[in-house]
Design goal:
Layout (H helix, E strand, L loop, with lengths): L6 E3 L5 H14 L11 H12 L4 E6 L2 E10 L9 E8 L8 H14 L5 E8 L2 H9 L3 E12 L2 E11 L2
Helix pairs in contact: 1-2
């Protein structure tokens, strides 16, 4: 059972826990297109950089990070300044407990308090769990790209899901 009280803003000190979750996906899945594990120091830099401008949240239980999410710049050109890309990762042993939904909901609510108008989730295909999670919160597919990534010796498709904030 998840608890909103276990949600908080990420801190650079969370980097080891976040890197542990993320690096599993880097090394074992095509959910992320990074191919090398991210060192703790680099994750600290990412947390600091993202947190300067956008929400970066963690879900913690008994001192352990079980999931995290954040928004980041979608594209660097000025006209895109009201659009962000979202990311949600949950520790593989904690999936199915509602942590991803709690995190994504909190991220959306935090973004509603900003000037963000559009949230884009780029999802590796197929990924029915992620699609279901995003559609639960009103995201709708906006694009699809065939064979744009290459990892583990195979071509990978991606699709963008979009949520417009009122």
């Amino acid at each position: 059972m998840t608890d909103k009280k276990r949600l908080r803003n990420a801190k650079p000190e969370d980097a080891a826990g976040i890197a542990g979750i993320y690096n599993y996906y880097v090394e074992n899945t095509d959910i992320t297109f990074e191919t090398e594990p991210v060192p703790e120091t680099e994750m600290q830099n990412r947390i600091r950089t993202v947190s300067e401008q956008y929400p970066y949240l963690v879900y913690e239980e008994t001192g352990r990070i079980l999931g995290y999410c954040y928004a980041s710049t979608w594209k660097k050109r000025e006209a895109y300044r009201h659009t962000v890309e979202s990311a949600v990762y949950v520790d593989r042993a904690s999936q199915g407990r509602g942590i991803g939904a709690l995190l994504l909901n909190a991220l959306i609510e935090a973004l509603r308090q900003t000037s963000v108008h559009a949230v884009i989730a780029c999802i590796t295909m197929p990924n029915p769990q992620s699609v279901k999670l995003h559609e639960k919160f009103g995201f709708r597919q906006a694009s699809g790209f065939k064979e744009v990534g290459h990892k583990f010796g195979k071509w990978i498709d991606v699709a963008d899901w979009q949520l417009l904030l009122p």
